[in-house]
Amino acid sequence: MKINVPMNVPSDKKRIYEKNFKEATKNTGKLFLFAGDQKIEHLNDDFSLKLNAGNSDPEHLFKIANSSKIGVFAAHLGLISRYGGQYRKIPYLVKLNGKSNLIKTKDPFSPALWSVSDVVNFQKQSKLRVLGVGYTIYLGSEYEVEMLKEAAQAINQAHQNGLLSVLWIYPRGKNIKQEKNPDLIAGAAGLGLCLGADFIKLSYPFGPGKKEATKAKEIITAAGNSGIIFSGGGKIDNKKFTELVRDQIKIAGARGCAVGRNIHQNKLEKAIKLANDLSKLI
């Protein structure tokens, strides 16, 4: 597998970047991101006891990540610091920013909670397998300039240290008429490329089915040589979700997937099985 190493990775960090890329993508160039950042983003909405017997315990996320063939487990630094010592073999991606869902303003703002320097220091201190960092941008928000700047700096600093970078980009705000307009999503893909992201996590703006997946090719093209991974969204039937991901990868050309609720809102055994099925597919 040939790795396209960004030119802002210093020569003395190139080997580290390549190692992290190979490990995160399991030598395929495709990323399976297991998302655990909803503990801040959605508070307890995704983790209620009503959903399943084990899902309300935060350790459920780590048990899944530890026992399945994911590429990276994306979570906030504080959560990783609380459980990482018990789960050292998990490949981590540290989410730098986050906000709760309580403030109902039309223009969301999610500034960084940690810096890339914090992550690098944590990696050295903890000796955990930290492979990269992630950041969410709310495109179209009146605060987008601040988020764009923080994201650009985070990506550059990550590459300077040989780490991967993943952007979550969601069009949101009073200027956005349709959050899942395919042309707008394609624009977000191109923006992520211009900021230098290795992978860009976007909402999938189409329904299930092979014909629908064909429409997503324009989004993949707009991202150039950055990889697009579509977000999993709310919980659906496991078989239908697997078919959706298969079409996104095999037909549209997505370079992996990002899944949270569709995995962790299952009991542990089913969650691990679904994660491994997705891993095999990717």
TrEMBL record:
Family recorded in the similarity comment: Belongs to the DeoC/FbaB aldolase family. FbaB subfamily.
SUPFAM superfamilies referenced in this protein's UniProt entry, alphabetically: Aldolase (SSF51569)
Active site, renumbered: 170 (proton donor), 201 (schiff-base intermediate with dihydroxyacetone-p)
Organism the protein comes from: Candidatus Falkowbacteria bacterium HGW-Falkowbacteria-1
EC category: lyase
Official protein name in the record: fructose-bisphosphate aldolase
The organism's place on the tree of life at top rank: Bacteria
GO terms of molecular function: fructose-bisphosphate aldolase activity
Keywords: Lyase, Schiff base
Record carries keyword Lyase: yes
Matches recorded under InterPro entries: Aldolase_TIM (IPR013785), DeoC/FbaB/LacD_aldolase (IPR002915), DeoC/FbaB_aldolase (IPR050456), FbaB-like (IPR041720)
Pfam families assigned to the protein according to its UniProt record, in alphabetical order: DeoC
EC number: 4.1.2.13
